[in-house]
Specification:
The protein has 268 residues and is mainly α. It has one domain (3-267). It has helices spanning 3-19, 26-37, 45-49, 51-61, 63-72, 77-106, 112-131, 146-156, 166-176, 181-207, 213-244, 247-267. One of its GO terms (biological process) is peptidoglycan biosynthetic process. Its EC number is 3.6.1.27. Belongs to the UppP family. Pfam families: BacA.
Amino acid sequence: MESQTIVEALLLGLLEGLTEFIPVSSTGHILLAGHFLGFESTGKAFEVLIQLGAILAILSVYFGKLWKMLTNLPSDARTRRFVLGILVAFLPAAVIGALAHDFIKSVLFETPMLICIMLIVGGFILLYVDRLQLRPKYHDAMDFPLPMCLSIGFIQCLAMIPGVSRSGSTIVGSLLLGADKRSAAEFSFFLAMPTMAGAFAYDLLKNHDALSNSDITIIVVGFIAAFVSGLFVVKHLLNYVSRHGYALFGWWRLLVGGVGLIALLIWG
């Protein structure tokens, strides 16, 4: 294992954790960075499997709330409805993701030009939605009705195109369907847990036979880096978006997408 590959895995893991829960497309960032660094993983498994670090980061921050929900589940109807809402929102991605897995990994993950375009388009959409004078009906993610959860679930499926952003699509969908900025981000956090865990498990099942010891080493390095950086983001994001909204992330998408597009046109 070359030390350069370990360093690249560390950098990509940090990038995963920093971008997974903000609406800028962590997969898009990692694929673009990997493209320009010349980083290649077996079956593009690294890019999916290091998400386990980000999953554990959000689980650790929300452990108290999740435990309370678990203990309240038998007796509290509101908690049961919220858990059902998360499962309903997860269902479209589970079905479509399994059916389209090979196309996503072999075609969409291999098209950096598409990623840059989606980053730019998503940036404009995020800036536009952030400036709308929306009148939110829901100020707590636990109050989202089931039809709204299902709609968010279908909107999340757009993120199967790298560069769109899972958190970005769910947040924008939630905002347009009546959520305030904080509850939109929090629902995206909760929906991330089954969605990312499902993607991790399915990708591991598909690729475990092809992974070597060196692949496992770089995945572990990326996983640890993603956990540490993801922990920081989850702890601070809700307070940030409550005060400042999502405009910063829209401008960031335009910057990264634009620079990436120029670099691809010049260097390929």
